[in-house]
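Q: I'm building a small set of examples for a reading group on sequence design. Run inverse folding on the following structure and report the sequence directly after it, with nothing in between.
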């Protein structure tokens, strides 16, 4: 089993891994990255793929750095793909609010979907 989420759902997928859920992997599309205030003491069993817009205003540089350090400290098998010139909600074809930082990006959408498919093939093979 794997968990996939978008935005807040991406955070939920990451938190499922953080809780030590017995699943193969999680994929977070433009998910929020901040760790919960109380960390689980269970080991992270899931592999993690975070798909992120490099200009996402909903994930600060500090949150991004902290996420990478957290995953490393927890000895997670993790990947972060950061798509250049891309903001939040890049997979949502109706997202078009540059002032809010949510804009669809067809190239990042396609690339992230391909990355997810390769990740799922890896964890289930």
């Amino acid at each position: 089993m794997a968990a996939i989420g978008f935005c807040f759902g991406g955070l939920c997928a990451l938190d499922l891994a953080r809780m030590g859920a017995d699943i193969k992997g999680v994929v977070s599309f433009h998910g929020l990255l901040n760790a919960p205030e109380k960390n689980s003491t269970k080991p992270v069993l899931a592999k993690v793929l975070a798909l992120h817009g490099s200009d996402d205003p909903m994930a600060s540089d500090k949150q991004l750095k902290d996420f990478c350090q957290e995953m490393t400290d927890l000895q997670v098998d993790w990947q972060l793909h950061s798509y250049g010139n891309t903001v939040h909600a890049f997979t949502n074809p109706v997202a078009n609010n540059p002032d809010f930082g949510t804009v669809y990006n067809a190239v990042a959408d396609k690339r992230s979907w391909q990355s997810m498919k390769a990740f799922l093939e890896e964890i289930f093979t």
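The chain is about 35% helix and 20% strand.
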